[in-house]
Amino acid sequence: MKKFWAFLLLILLLLMLLLLMLLPQKNPRIRLQSQAFINQPVLQVWEKLSDLSQLQSYLLFVDDSEVTKLQKKGEGTQRTIYLKNKHNVQEEVIEWDQGQGFVLRLHKPSFFLPFHDVETRYRIESDDEAGLRTDLAVTLTVRPRFGLLGRWLLAPFMTTRFQRLLDDLADGLKYYCETGLPVTEQTVTTFRQ
């Protein structure tokens, strides 16, 4: 009789977990932002930022990145990012505002990733009247998988990791724009202190 009740309890628990995973189809998005002030004019920052094949110059865990279509800039441009862990991901530009920013969406995320979609918005504007300093804002929008269960279990873990990634990205882009040099482990360690 105890086995029956234990089995029934297990079935009920599994049904509740399944319900939590499937309940809300429109899972709330997690939105994170990082900002950097770059000591370069907007035009020079835009020149580096809009070159979508140079992500590895300002993000340490990227081995290489390449634009995979003939179109090198603008809406519809796609790039493949080769990560140091030997995986790769594809992104597509879904919004392009010449000289001011763009939005990239993770293209066809793997089933094994803990989120449905990821969008990264890069925005730049002049920070001073002389136009010698640029304000960079990078916003990451993520929607976790697995409904409420994903929101409760994955969001705290994802938020911390993604915020660190965003901060590294903004600081790395600042370093790359100001020096023309790619980031190294030493420079990233300096950012984090």
TrEMBL record:
Q: Which InterPro entries match?
A: Polyketide_cyclase/dehydratase, START-like_dom_sf
- Which top-level group of life is the source organism from? Bacteria
- Pfam short name (any one): Polyketide_cyc2
Q: What is this protein called?
A: Polyketide cyclase
Its source organism is Endozoicomonas montiporae
